Amino acid sequence: MSELHKFLFEGLPVRGMLVRLTEGWQEVLKRREAVGAHPPELRALLGEMAAAGVLMQSNIKFNGALVLQIFGDGPVKLAVAEVQPDLTFRATAKVVGEVPAGAKLEAMLNVHGKGRCAITLDPKDKFPGQQPYQGVVPLHGDHREPLQKLSEVLEHYMLQSEQLDTKLVLAANDEVAAGLLIQRLPIKGEGNLKEGEVAERNEDQIGLSEDYNRISMLASTLTSEELLTLDADTILRRLFWEESVRRFEPQHPSFACTCSRERVGSMLKGLGREEIDSVVAERGNVEINCEFCGLQYHFDSVDVAQLFNAASVSGSGTVQ
């Protein structure tokens, strides 16, 4: 069963989380096969994104969807992982062209240096006029060097947006998507910058806590193989056996898709009656495939009439 473990280091300004997505991640890949399997390099990236999304959603306790997106100028145009407040998640990607064997982040999404990573927080219950918050960072570091790992991109994002030192270890295969997050807690009197303000930090402000530096170095010794094959108890014991660790009850992330016939219908109405009628006239119906879960939504002429007319008309649409 998929598990998320939260823990604190007693007496130290450091917290951590460990996630292992198993059957939920396998369900993502199974459903993706229905519309075309992704190459292994992209599957690994999506798995890391799903694990990272769960860690970040749990870390901020946000009442809404956390959407992690990477978009760029390589064969992978877009990769998305979305996590809800109850830690249900989904992931997908759009590929145009061939992903090179063994490709890393740069070769998939940042060929010409135009790749970006965006994290969007979309509130569940919006106030009138309220817009989702989005933070965007490039896929390179402060000195313009290309970042080859998703973990490096997100560490850079957390340092810029939250002014908190963060260590991430991520790994994924076709069986498990997993991640370890270690983060320095804010020190008393250390305020966050206002939204949109550029973070200006002196070198002596980075890594303020020696305790964080020590624990971060321990976390960095965790290999991908260990992260994917060892259970949470073994990993935490091996890494932090000299530390006093307080653990909390595990949570259980799972796969779930938020698509629905109603949401698809709203999207079709947004396209306009004329355009939808032309598709029905040409093909007999409108067919929409969910890229996340593979469900197919069909709308025939009766369904279209029901969408656009105020009068209630019995539809004959089906979901396969």
What does this structure look like?
By secondary structure, the chain is of the alpha+beta class. The chain folds into two domains: 3-255, Hsp33 domain, CATH 3.55.30; 261-308, HSP33 redox switch-like (CBS domain Like, Alpha-Beta Complex). The chain has helices at 23-33, 40-60, 105-109, 150-161, 210-220, 224-229, 232-240, 261-271, 273-283, 301-308, and strands spanning 3-9, 14-21, 64-71, 76-83, 88-95, 116-123, 133-138, 166-172, 177-184, 245-247, 254-255, 286-289, 296-299. The strands form three sheets. Strands 7-6-3-4-5-11 form a six-stranded mixed beta sheet, with helices on one face. It has a five-stranded antiparallel beta sheet with strand order 8-9-2-1-10. The model is unreliable at 190-207 and 310-316 (pLDDT under 50).
Named CATH architecture of the largest domain: 3-Layer(bab) Sandwich
Radius of gyration: 22 Å
Mean pLDDT: 84
Largest sheet: 6 strands, mixed
The CATH superfamily label of the largest domain reads Hsp33 domain
| Integer count of domains | 2
CATH topology of the largest domain: Hsp33 domain
Name the helix and strand elements from N-terminus to C-terminus, one letter apiece.
EEHHEEEHEEHEEHHHEEHHEEH
Which structural class should the secondary elements be placed in? alpha+beta
How many helical stretches? 10
Which runs of at least 5 residues are low in confidence (pLDDT < 50)? 190-207, 310-316
